[in-house]
């Protein structure tokens, strides 16, 4: 089940904790992967770890030209483009009263606009093939909000609306568009929290623990699989029960 | 029929799955051949690939019939 043999997947933000795990899961499922990110070194390290069927396609998602070029580069490297995982994201946290236009805009540009452009860029090959999977990594905060993250929450909520709209446009062509919304996932970022902060967080999570990147990756692999062909416009929450929506 | 018209017709028949004799010059993609808005976008993409041309959005909007497509491509090619 959830076999991805013969499929080609582009994963953005593959240099990060969750992105790398998504790439591993898709590759383990048999897919050829194109690893994208701004930092080339971790991408090459991951490609070396995965071995055959892993390509490095660096891109700067805050640069529109770089975004436009990425699906073409991935298609050329892999010879196909069946699965897109928009995982890359940045944060520029701050209370709204003090948030600069630049902090607002840069988060919208990378987390929402680049994701849209990449989806648009992948549509042609997917529609021609009458098969495609687009999976956008959003966040619990896109639905619940989070103080200090007006920009990030807006971008993630925007991604959900965009996904649902596109899902309706292309469903008849065998292309699905879904979101995976992680809750608190243990990454390098959450390692920096102190014990008190962690305890505060965990008290709001019925599962009593943070999630692992592998648990996000498994959800992505499912949505990327042929078996998920009837699932579109959905938001799959992977959050240990911290918000049941 | 010209070579361009033949190739256009072939694409339309393949893409929309319609009978060849229905694909006349005056046939409207949407009203006569059952295309939806996404079909028309895909047809334009297919024409672009087949003929190696670029069809800008405003021109694409005006391509409503098989004849419109043949005319635009003949002028652009």
Automatic annotation (TrEMBL), chain A:
Source organism (scientific name): Thioclava dalianensis
GO annotation (BP), single: fatty acid biosynthetic process
Family indicated by similarity: Belongs to the short-chain dehydrogenases/reductases (SDR) family.
InterPro entries: 3oxo_ACP_reduc, KR_dom, NAD(P)-bd_dom_sf, SDR, SDR_fam
GO molecular function, one term: NAD binding
Gene3D superfamilies according to UniProt: NAD(P)-binding Rossmann-like Domain
Protein's pathway: Lipid metabolism; fatty acid biosynthesis
Positions contributing to NADP(+) binding: 38, 87, 152-156, 185
Lineage of origin: Bacteria, Pseudomonadati, Pseudomonadota, Alphaproteobacteria, Rhodobacterales
Domain Ketoreductase: from-to ranges: 7-188
The protein's name in its UniProt record: 3-oxoacyl-[acyl-carrier-protein] reductase
EC number, as in UniProt: 1.1.1.100
EC top class, as a word: oxidoreductase
Listed NCBIfam families: 3oxo_ACP_reduc, PRK07231.1, PRK12826.1-2
Catalytic activities: a (3R)-hydroxyacyl-[ACP] + NADP(+) = a 3-oxoacyl-[ACP] + NADPH + H(+)
Superkingdom as given in the UniProt entry: Bacteria
Entry annotated with the keyword Repressor: no
UniProtKB/TrEMBL annotation, chain B:
Modified residues annotated as O-(pantetheine 4'-phosphoryl)serine in this record: 37
Post-translational modification summary for this protein: 4'-phosphopantetheine is transferred from CoA to a specific serine of apo-ACP by acpS.
Name this polypeptide is given: Acyl carrier protein
Pathway entry: Lipid metabolism; fatty acid biosynthesis; Glycolipid biosynthesis; KDO(2)-lipid A biosynthesis
InterPro entries registered for this protein in UniProt: ACP (IPR003231), ACP-like_sf (IPR036736), PKS_PP-bd (IPR020806), PP-bd_ACP (IPR009081), Ppantetheine_attach_site (IPR006162)
Organism: Thioclava indica
Gene Ontology MF terms: acyl binding; acyl carrier activity; phosphopantetheine binding
Keyword line: Cytoplasm, Fatty acid biosynthesis, Fatty acid metabolism, Lipid biosynthesis, Lipid metabolism, Phosphopantetheine, Phosphoprotein
């Amino acid at each position: 089940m959830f076999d991805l043999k013969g499929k080609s997947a582009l994963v953005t933000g593959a240099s990060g904790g969750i992105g790398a795990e998504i790439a591993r899961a898709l590759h383990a499922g048999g897919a050829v992967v194109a690893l994208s990110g701004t930092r080339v070194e971790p991408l090459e390290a991951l490609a070396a770890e995965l071995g055959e069927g892993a390509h490095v396609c660096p891109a700067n998602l805050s640069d529109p030209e770089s975004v436009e070029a990425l699906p073409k580069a991935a298609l050329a490297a892999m010879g196909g483009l069946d699965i897109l995982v928009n995982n890359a994201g940045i944060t520029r946290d701050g209370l709204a009263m003090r948030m600069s236009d630049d902090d607002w805009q840069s988060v919208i540009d990378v987390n929402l606009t680049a994701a849209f452009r990449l989806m648009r860029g992948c549509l042609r090959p997917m529609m021609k093939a009458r098969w495609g999977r687009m999976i956008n990594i959003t966040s619990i905060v896109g639905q619940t909000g989070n103080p200090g993250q007006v920009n990030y929450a807006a971008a993630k909520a925007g991604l959900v609306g965009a996904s649902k709209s596109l899902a309706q446009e292309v469903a008849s062509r065998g292309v699905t568009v879904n979101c995976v919304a992680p809750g608190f996932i243990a990454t390098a970022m959450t390692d920096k929290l102190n014990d008190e902060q962690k305890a505060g967080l965990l008290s709001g999570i019925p599962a009593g623990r943070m999630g692992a990147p592998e648990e996000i990756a498994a959800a992505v692999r499912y949505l990327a699989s042929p078996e998920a062909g009837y699932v579109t416009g959905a938001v799959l929450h992977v959050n240990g029960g911290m918000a049941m929506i | 029929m010209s070579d361009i018209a033949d190739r256009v017709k072939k694409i339309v028949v393949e893409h929309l799955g319609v009978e060849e004799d229905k694909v006349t010059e005056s046939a409207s993609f949407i009203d006569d051949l059952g295309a939806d808005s996404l079909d028309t976008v895909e047809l334009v993409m297919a024409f672009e690939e087949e003929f190696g041309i670029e069809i800008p959005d405003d021109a694409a909007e005006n391509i409503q019939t098989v004849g419109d497509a043949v005319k635009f491509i003949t002028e652009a090619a």
